[in-house]
Amino acid sequence: MANLLRATAAWGLFSCRGYCSRIKQGKLSEDFVEALKAVVGSPHVSTAAAVLQQHGHDESMHRCQPPDAVVWPQNVEQVSQLAALCYSQGMPIIPFGTGTGLEGGVCAVQGGVCFNLTHMDRILALNTEDFSVVVEPGVTRKALNTHLRDSGLWFPVDPGADASLCGMAATGASGTNAVRYGTIRDNVLNLEVVLPGGQLLHTAGQGRHYRKSAAGYNLTGLFVGSEGTLGLITAATLRLHPAPETTVAATCAFPSVQAAVDSTVHILQAAVPVARIEFLDEVMMDACNRHSKLDCRVAPTLFLEFHGSEQALGEQVQRTEEITQSNGAFHFSWAKEAEERSQLWAARHNAWYAALALRPGCKGYATDVCVPISRLPEILVQAKEDLKASGLTDPEDTEELRRVEAFAQQLGRRALALHGTCTGEHGIGLGKRQLLQEEVGAVGIETMRQLKATLDPRGLMNPGKVL
Amino acid sequence: MANLLRATAAWGLFSCRGYCSRIKQGKLSEDFVEALKAVVGSPHVSTAAAVLQQHGHDESMHRCQPPDAVVWPQNVEQVSQLAALCYSQGMPIIPFGTGTGLEGGVCAVQGGVCFNLTHMDRILALNTEDFSVVVEPGVTRKALNTHLRDSGLWFPVDPGADASLCGMAATGASGTNAVRYGTIRDNVLNLEVVLPGGQLLHTAGQGRHYRKSAAGYNLTGLFVGSEGTLGLITAATLRLHPAPETTVAATCAFPSVQAAVDSTVHILQAAVPVARIEFLDEVMMDACNRHSKLDCRVAPTLFLEFHGSEQALGEQVQRTEEITQSNGAFHFSWAKEAEERSQLWAARHNAWYAALALRPGCKGYATDVCVPISRLPEILVQAKEDLKASGLTDPEDTEELRRVEAFAQQLGRRALALHGTCTGEHGIGLGKRQLLQEEVGAVGIETMRQLKATLDPRGLMNPGKVL
After folding, report:
1. B191 — alpha (psi -120 to 50), left (phi > 0) or beta?
2. What is the pTM of this model?
């Protein structure tokens, strides 16, 4: 949220309820299943109910909608052949990576064939001098960073889950390091895409990994964030960064949201190259204290991290401390040792579970919006009022899911009213299609529809998502 | 060139020859001209030969191809009405900013109406807390930075010319600061675009200026670099940066191209946040010495600049010096005083004129390519050999233009062979359409053609460019 200052507040908890249910079966002809098997081999096709069910949902609360078959292609040629087969038969195609999305992007709303791409998990090329790497769709961000360990380089984009990198490209993912290193959008140099009819597209030309170009339309940018609705990403060329020499983390508690936001603006205006800056409200801090055994003050808090040389960090730390103090910070706490630092960020990464622990036996409902940073205090105040008015904090409420959905929609509208976006990093998926229309307007939606119709004239690529 | 290390070498000089010639006239009906005048008023429409001629070329060597009329809309509503009028009459539309392009992007190859957008020159909004500004198409990069002078912010993208910012967005421009601040592509948050038929599109939704989003297809990225072939950019929301507290510049001479490139890679791997890094070969250095009265060693040379606090710069300078020395640098020269620094960068910015001065009475031919940084030495060696073989350095040559064009095409192909791009910042325009096909391949070109046909079904937006 908020111009790369991400804010996390404890809202959106509701009672546990039945999850995956109806499984459509027998929609596929035997011939068609045989044709799939002819491409990838029998062991790599499944129509087993349990498998279909497992592939019909992500980590969101969207109802499980299973595909009619799951295939595990082993290479890009098979992806291409499968896509051509499905497309010619009018069969929906749903790409599937780690299934860690948060907006129902993998739900097979019209059935069809789920392409599980995790068997394609090779790192195809690493160019350390050019700061680039090429990965197949089964490679996750943690696997890549493990591979890079001795290279002096790393890939900094870190959404909560250990998502696949190609899935992150498809979703437009982000994470805690975006303030310094950008989102996935800023770090994709080239994509290999199987178009719906099976054709192979290299968005920046085959094998290319330059950092800037003015050559023709930006196809790479069009496919990043397209959520599998324009094609299947079968390889991504990513930009790497030098691994930080030294890292220091900190927390800083403030008397108000405004003071935390003002500090953030001043830190950025002072060009302090902060790597991570995350805001947690007092309810979230309390939850983190309890869950992760922290001893932080229960107040609006910034989590910060700096990357650089020993000497550079000393100066960054000092400047930041001065800025926060001049904005009335209560308390500043630096964590320099690796152990202390990872405890802090583990607490931040476990914020979701800390929130869940506030109401044992409940499930969480995740949403995200983004506003210009100057509007962050407003939207936080508004959201807290909405939350109160919604009665969602009443544990006796029996109709919570509907109301938490209404709250998330309202939060999206509030972000739009403050010149923001209804999603900074989770994507549109199933749940935010109406909000997208309000965000980009009639001409924007019509333009997107035209692009979709051009690249997927039969409407078979991950149907029902985004538009 | 080269992964944001830009390299400049002295090639491409040829004899002066006749420039603008044939003026088509009388292609427009009186009724149509009257209709144009009814929208913008008589003083803002011209069909005078001199005006048409002036609008038929940019700063490249592409032959002048004048439009049939020039209009100066005063606001976006007029742009929209004019576009609708032209489109309904099958009349080509050519957007025109400062006319400083380098690939013939404004040549009216099919005649039509040139939209000179320089009368729309307001800065519509400045949000210092959110680091954003909204500019109309008549605002140039220098005008914006003058406006920002007391805000503590600046806009760092700096192509050679004082181009209009919307024109820079249309072209996909870059400049000397790209290594730290990115190209124009990384710094456009939103665009207001008049589509060919007159409809108004806000690529990220009206009034929005957040820094990250995962909401739908990336329309902003599609229009950046589209060279006026998809619509007319009538306003751009740009990302601003904190103005550097202190600046230090330096030059460093090397025994070889390889040593300069190795130094660059090591500087980047060490995460030294260098703001500018430019390579000049020994011929170019010699020309700069003569033209700008510098006293630099005639050798392959890096021009560097660092931005930051006094303390941070001290460390950056020291590290960089160590790295270059370990790579065998001959000579390191720091320029800390503003005057000394601007003399250095003025010399770099005047490199074009320094090259021209090597052969008085000649015109220059500009081209650009970009390769992964590890391949820079190869392409420089290859290009120098090609240059020698081409006979272009022979002043008695009477057929130079054809040969310099052939040399530029060959340079583009060499970049492609080294996994690079045929243009890092000048665009495709008229001259590099064949190279673009080779760069992105048949499926890539077909995808671009489909996008063009979708957004401009009658093919009237800046026809003959890019594709």
Report:
1. beta
2. 0.93
